[in-house]
Amino acid sequence: MRIGVLTGGSDCPGLNAALRAIVRKGVQSYGDSVVGFLDGWDGVLHDRAVELDIPAVRGTLPRGGTILGSSRTDPLTAPDGPRRIAETLRSRGVDGLIVVGGINTLTAAAVLADRHGVPCVGVPKTIDNDIHGTDYTVGFNTAVTVATETIDRLHTTAESHKRVLVVEVMGRSSGWIAVHAGLAGGANCVLVPEFPFDLDRVCGHVESRFQATYSPIVVVSDSALPASGDVDLTGLSGIGEWLGLEIERCTGHEARTTVLGHIQRGGTPTPYDRWLATRFGLHAVDAVHEGDWGAMVAVRGANVERVRLTEAVSRSKKIDASLYADSEIFFG
To answer: Lowest-pLDDT range, 58-62, 72-76, 213-217, 268-272?
Structure first.
């Protein structure tokens, strides 16, 4: 078969591991040829691609980013997008397209597969881990590792200066990175968008920590908000800086904010992300050969299974109350 592949949306560690696995499995196990479309859906819309053989992906397993490039291009909003996508695949002789992406990229794949007959198989990647139907997504473990290592380092500077250290992490509309990194890094308060926070309660945790002669670390997801909704971020970098200023105003303790930003998406993938991306790539090739269009590979426990793309993108995966309660044990 002739397999196409693209990486769309925000980059994350592990994308090259997935591409490597797709090429190795396709070429070695099935005798396939593989074509990689450049810069996500934009490459398919404008017919920009490169041939991918085993030498092309050699040595890419530990590399961050994506050798194909990425973009946020949405083929569903492009003029005559679905027809152009189908025409590019026909002209290139592509039998099936493996789409490696987050919610937006995979939503386009779901619509193209179900409504326009475009042969797509999805691979879930995003540091936010918010795709429904899979326990984990490619890139999430690396982002949590980066955030945890940062929290570990900040503990010592917080203690040295007796400051409050606020750490703002990414997460879009979910708090997966905040909860995992906060628990692993020994944060004294973790704030996520699923559960709007009470500023007075946060300040109480801060005071409690100082009374125990320790300096607190507060981890906040970049889309978390106070329950009052009363927040003005004008002139500020985000909710983390706002929170640091409010804690300092309310408690009198000096506060500093660290915004991790895009550092969570860069660098070499962790062993787990390499393992996950590799397995996803291998199973995606099998799905192509079985003609399981509109499927997405997913990990559940230790097993890689398939779910429908339409179901996976139907809603964002959120932190539930029981998981958040595990973090709350260590607040204050």
So the answer is: 213-217
Query: How does 12-43 read in b/e, with b if 16+ C-beta sit within 10 Å?
Result: bbbbbbbbbbbbbbbbeeeebbbbbbbbbbbb
Using the structure block, give the residue that is written with the tokens 């949590």.
Answer: 144
The active-site residue out of 128, 130, 222, 273 is 128
Hey, what amino acid is at 40? G
Burial state string for 268-294 with b = 16 or more CB within 10 A and e = fewer than 16 = ebbebbbebbbbbbbbbbbbbbeebbb
128 belongs to the catalytic site: yes
pLDDT of residue 213: 80
DSSP 166: E
H helices within 134-259, ranges in order?
Answer: 140-161, 176-185, 199-211, 239-251
- Mean residue pLDDT of the chain comes to 97
**Nearest CA among 86, 124, 177 for reference residue 9:** 124
296 has which bridge partners? 122, 307
Residue with tokens 């997008």: 81
CB atoms within 10 A of CB 72: 15
Under the banding of pLDDT at 50, 70 and 90, the label for residue 109 is very high
User: Phi and psi at residue 171, in whole multiples of 5°?
Assistant: 165, -10
Residue 73 tokens, joined = 């291009």
* Whole-model pTM over 0.90: yes
Report the SS3 class of residue 96: strand
